[in-house]
Design a protein that fits this description.
heterodimer; A: 69% helix; B: mainly alpha; ABC transporter involved in vitamin B12 uptake, BtuC; 2 domains; three-stranded mixed beta sheet; transmembrane (chain B); membrane (chain B)
Chain lengths: 465, 429
């Protein structure tokens, strides 16, 4: 038991009233579960409750309304999130240390000089993480301010497609659809956008606008197709999206093997560079790769927030996601909901494709989507399917990805460690009770429960004595 | 009280209110039209040879030689007749009979094969190799979807099949390399599957985290972990860590000499035989044993099962672990049978395909088995055809399995019903 727990209920003596105790225990457990559920719902297919479950609201909902500040911090969700990140980094660091060659060498004489091993382990893990930070946020060794903040702009560049595609996955989640198909939607969006980008000859502004629209259209068609098939035939969207991912990549490979998509005089599967008028202008000058696509991603986040929380369509989508039967009874067209949700989700993923083809890569290849479509699922899950949560998760994952490249180059630590840390973060954040029990934090609203548990213990031992 | 109610989307979809479903007849009519135009009118003017047995076999069957034009027209006309029958059936208000769809599918396949092989540069294909290769390709898929059946029938959605397969493949490679024995690798693969399953069970049952989230995240975790270990350990000393011996092919004497079916059923590795055994055992156990009844009860209506004294969460926990054993063994196929050695992300989405096969097979072991076989067949067909040099671009051939699945799911299977409580954690009270 942590010292922060100051049970207001005085410990019972052995001869207390068991029924009352049990009732209190039950009530506390019930409350705990309710809160867990409230905290969970955003992460999956069920939208969060109507009342936003801010950490303050969560703790305030507990029986003891007047909680000290410390108590509120200790039980808040923000702390759990921070601890989840810390815990994941520690586990990742352990993995780096265990597989490090210096550590292995010094471990062979561990019992004669144990500090060598520990020192080597520390330098392996801390070196990798320092490089990760240097590659994603701030490079203190840079010779100018621009060089110093360059990593941060890289993070934002990588985060742009993650945010856009993550928003698509999150939106579909809220409508009760599990959209694994962001990868295919990005690819088709990027293909259409790229095609408009390198074939059309239009003035600046109009051309870019058309490129963006084409990308959104491509994604919307690929996503909407899933919605239509699901609504009309009842086919499972998980199968459809997986299959359409494969169909999309093969379609793009085929298109890139035709002369219309290749550079003149070349048979390589790579498109001509997009016209300069079709590209996102750089956001911070030509020294940085960051482009206006990031601003579009911010706008998309605002749009999705507005759509979900302020518009009728968004309300209907959430209703379909929460309980399709109830939604139908209330007069909401479930079919329309599915189609709309998947089409908008696809359009958002298409934006990610535009960010890649008209911003970062500037050409169309079959690898233009990298693995953004799959990472987007984790981003949406970490963001608990809320627009701004997805935005923040996209930034975090963007930082990991941008920093991971630097880390691999400078310390030789494989970038795959980033995947491990990312997935651990999502796992731990999704299971607050695990993090709380690992760090011995009090459960929100569990003060009487803690007291009751202690009572039971004393009762048990007291009874035996 | 409100628990995490993750309603499976398909359960909440529109009830089958329409008396007459025109979906199947329309699909059949469209396909029949395609057959008339392509297989009939567009038939190549030559003979197509299907080789039924290897010339070195004990029993050699004569080659099957079909004239492409006649076969094309014949199948197309019969397909059209079947489509008309389907339309008539629906007009009467009856459903399209299953046999009709099955016959249609087989005939369409024959028509397609004749047309596509006939159009190839070399109109000659080894049918026995095509079929045997399909089964081989389907082995990991079948294990994966059986894992899904075990887990989802008890009410836990198993998206982590991909992770179980990949970790099984990894563990099999490492354990077999270090010990020098493929059998040790097989056991290590099962254990690895159980580890992934254990995490899935702990997070989804004990901590009531959304099961889809846990599954997806576990896949990423395993991909990252195996990728990291691959580049930091395995690839630095492949001799030591990543050179597993292969499982030998055990052919049963006499029986393996049976033409066509012999190699498929009686000339397999241990993993291949285990696959047939697993399908049969899971099917019988699920529908004929007390354990199976309890599993299904827990997956359909956990409260009722609990009322009758079944420990719901323990049942689910054990089933998820068992699912891990099955998928882990399936994963060993990649490193002990298919190729000798682990490669980064070598399962390449097969776990998701297995998930699709599971849904396509309607959460039934036999259904999943055939769905996975269909997938394996389509994949192998595209491999074989790209070798023959057909006029169809390679990329479209590689799309074939996925397109077939979309058509099958959207046109023929349609609304599939998951186990009632699949995805919904059970909290007593």
């Amino acid at each position: 038991m942590s010292p922060q727990e100051n049970p207001p209920v005085t410990p019972d003596t052995a001869g207390g009233q068991p029924p009352t105790r049990r009732a209190a225990q039950e009530a506390a457990r019930e409350e705990e579960r309710r809160l867990e559920a409230a905290a969970e719902t955003g992460g999956g297919q069920v939208p969060p409750p109507a009342v936003p479950a801010s950490p303050a609201a969560l703790t305030a909902a507990g029986p003891g309304d007047e909680q000290p500040l410390m108590q509120r911090i200790m039980t808040g969700n923000a702390l759990v999130a921070v601890l989840a990140v810390v815990l994941s980094l520690i586990l990742g660091g352990l993995l780096i240390a265990v597989t490090d060659e210096d550590v292995a060498r010094s471990a062979s004489y561990f019992f004669s000089r144990p500090m060598d091993t520990i020192g080597a382990a520390w330098s392996a893990a801390s070196g990798a993480y320092a490089a990760l930070f240097q590659g994603s946020v701030f490079n203190a060794g840079g010779d100018s301010f621009a060089r110093m903040i360059y990593p941060l702009t890289q993070t934002l560049t990588v985060a742009t497609p993650l945010i856009c595609a993550g928003l698509g996955v999150a939106l579909a989640f809220r409508a009760g659809l599990f959209n694994i198909g962001a990868q295919g939607q990005i690819l088709i969006g990027a293909t259409l956008a790229g095609w408009v980008g390198f074939t059309a000859n239009l003035p600046f502004g109009l051309h870019l606008l058309l490129v963006i629209l084409a990308g959104m259209l491509g994604g919307a068609i690929w996503g909407g197709l899933v919605g239509v098939l699901k609504a009309r035939t009842g086919a499972h969207e998980v199968i459809l999206t997986i299959m359409l991912n494969y169909i999309a990549i093969n379609l793009v490979l085929y298109l890139l093997s035709t002369p219309g998509f290749q550079r003149p005089g070349s048979t390589n599967p790579i498109s001509p560079q997009l016209e300069a008028t079709a590209l996102y202008p750089p956001l911070l000058g030509s020294g940085f790769r960051l482009h206006w696509g990031f601003i579009v991603a911010v706008l998309a986040t605002v749009f999705v927030w507005w759509l979900l929380n302020r518009s009728t369509v968004g309300f209907e989508l959430r209703a379909v996601g929460a309980n399709a039967t109830a939604a139908r009874t209330a007069g909401v067209s479930v079919s329309r909901g599915y189609i709309l949700a998947m089409a908008i989700a696809g359009a958002l993923a298409g934006l990610a494709g535009v960010a890649q083809v008209a911003g970062t890569e500037k050409v169309l290849t079959s690898g233009v989507a990298a693995s953004f479509g799959f990472d987007a699922i984790t981003v949406a899950l970490l963001g608990r399917s809320s627009p701004w949560g997805t935005f923040a998760a996209g930034l975090l994952f963007g930082a990991f990805r941008a920093g991971g490249v630097t880390m691999q180059a400078s310390t030789g630590t494989s970038i795959d460690i980033v995947l491990v840390v990312q997935s651990l973060i999502v796992l731990f954040i999704a299971a607050p009770p695990l993090v709380r029990s690992l760090f011995r934090l009090p459960t929100p609203g569990a003060i009487p429960s803690a007291g009751a548990r202690r009572n039971r213990k004393t009762a048990a031992t007291g009874g035996a004595a | 009280m409100s628990t995490v109610t993750t309603a499976a989307p398909d359960r909440s979809a529109a009830p089958a209110g329409a008396v007459r479903s025109w979906k199947t007849p329309i699909l059949l009519a469209v396909l029949a039209l395609v057959a008339l135009l392509v297989f009939g009118a567009g038939a190549p003017r030559n003979n197509v040879t299907f080789r039924l047995s290897d010339p070195n076999d004990a029993i050699v069957l004569p080659d099957l030689v079909l004239p492409a034009v006649a076969t094309g027209w014949l199948t197309a006309v019969v397909l059209a007749a079947l489509a008309v029958l389907a339309v008539l059936a629906v007009r009467r208000g009856a459903a399209v009979p299953v046999w009709l769809v099955a016959v249609f599918a087989v005939l369409f396949l024959i028509g397609f094969l004749t047309w596509v092989v006939g159009s190839a540069n070399n109109p000659n294909v080894a049918l026995y190799g095509l079929l045997a290769g399909s089964v081989t390709l389907a082995v990991p898929l079948i294990f994966g979807s059986l894992s899904g059946v075990l887990s989802e029938r008890s009410g836990v959605v198993n998206i982590a099949i991909e992770g179980q397969l990949l970790f099984g493949a990894f563990a099999a490679a490492v354990a077999a390399s270090v010990s020098g024995s493929a059998i040790v690798g097989l056991f290590a693969a099962a254990l690895a599957g159980v580890i992934v399953s254990f995490l899935l069970a702990v997070f989804s049952i004990r901590y009531i985290v959304n099961q889809v989230i846990v599954g997806v995240v576990l896949n990423v975790l395993v991909s990252g972990l195996t990728g990291f270990l691959f580049s930091s350990v395995l690839s630095k000393d492949a001799e030591m860590w990543n050179s597993p011996p292969r499982l030998p092919v055990l052919s049963i004497p006499v029986l393996s000499e049976i033409p066509i079916l012999g190699p498929i059923l009686f000339e397999q590795t241990i993993v291949g035989y285990l696959m047939y055994i697993a399908v049969a055992v899971v099917y019988v156990a699920l529908f004929r044993s007390r354990w199976g009844l309890r599993t299904r009860a827990v997956g359909e209506h956990p409260k009722a099962a609990d009322t009758l004294g079944v420990n719901v969460n323990r049942m689910r926990f054990m089933n998820v672990l068992l699912a891990g054993v099955v998928a882990g063994v399936g994963g060993s196929f990649f490193t002990l049978v298919s190729v000798s050695g682990f490669g980064r992300d070598m399962t390449a989405g097969q776990g998701y395909i297995a998930l699709a096969a599971l849904i396509f097979g309607r959460w039934n072991p036999i259904g999943a088995f055939f769905a996975a076989l269909l997938f394996g067949f389509a994949t192998n067909l595209s491999n074989v055809l790209s070798l023959l040099g057909t006029p169809v671009p390679d990329q479209f051939l590689r799309m074939l399995p996925y397109v077939v699945t979309v058509f099958a799911v959207a046109g023929l299977v349609g609304r599939s019903r998951a186990p009632g409580a699949s995805g919904i954690p059970y909290v007593k009270g």
